[in-house]
Here is the input.
Amino acid sequence: MDRFKLVLQYFQSNSESISNGICIILSLISVKLYTSFDFNCPCLPQYNKMYALGVMFVPPVILFFLGILVNRHTGVSMEEWVRPIGRRTKNPAVVKFLLSAVIQRSLLAPMVWILMTLLDGKCLICAFSMNVNPKYFTGLPNSTGLELMKIMAKVSCKEDVIFKNSSYRKAISRYVRCYSQAIGWSILLILIFLGAVARITKPCFNYPTFLQTRYWSNYLDVEQKLFDETCVLHARDFARKCVMQYFESMREDESLRLPLTYAIRPGQIQNDMEEEDDRLHGITRQDQVDNLLESWFECKPELDVTRMAYKPRVCITWEDNEGKALFSDV
Here is the structure.
């Protein structure tokens, strides 16, 4: 249970971890879907290849776009790409880094699906059994009167009466499955090798630039998240203040008197509204909110916090009952 909590905390630590967790979940979903999928080859020359290749490549395309859709960095990178320059310059390297990260994570689930189909071999048996040269195998059923192409198209259908008590179908299926598994293991080996080489050689290619790009990509994600959270808090305070003003006006309206049990103490709403003035930051009208949001998109704030760093420091001194200073808090 403790290990599960640690794993959950890791995936909740930042958006990158959440994206990795979503990709892993999509990969597990692809495995579950494939194992529960009932593959039925049409066993017809004109449909076998289309059906098998559709099963192999259509679900990966769906999983790929689903991975792009649920990845938070997709919206962050596109927003950074289309926004006006304003007071902040745009770094194309950051956008490329975010998009490459999105594509890499989104390709995980499709690659799992394709590797499973290759290692299983059913799709390739259905699609390419007609391309196998039958002269290399013995025991071809020739008493049915069917064309050779139609006989080869029925290799995937083991329940067909043509191959009853015949080892011909098993030999061709084993032959094509071996090729399919060889391709699958080769692709897996190549992907692992490329990942290992990229991981080892990464510090050798301008690593400081990579660190800078990764830092600012994380900054964009955190900035957008904080802006969304601040907007939610501001909207909550704005709505609360509007509702409180409404009830305050109803209390003063002679034509509508609230019952005594629901009456609000005089000055209570006013005090609460004064406490929320600081949290509203002076943004108290709809046109001000609209202008603020438009300005955020068109003119992002400059990446310079020196004005905050040199703000006057406040010194608070704590004293005991006798007036002696205990310590100061700056």
Observations:
- Residues 2-205 form one domain.
- The chain has 13 helices and two strands.
- The two ends are 43 Å apart (CA to CA).
- Strands lie at 316-319, 325-329.
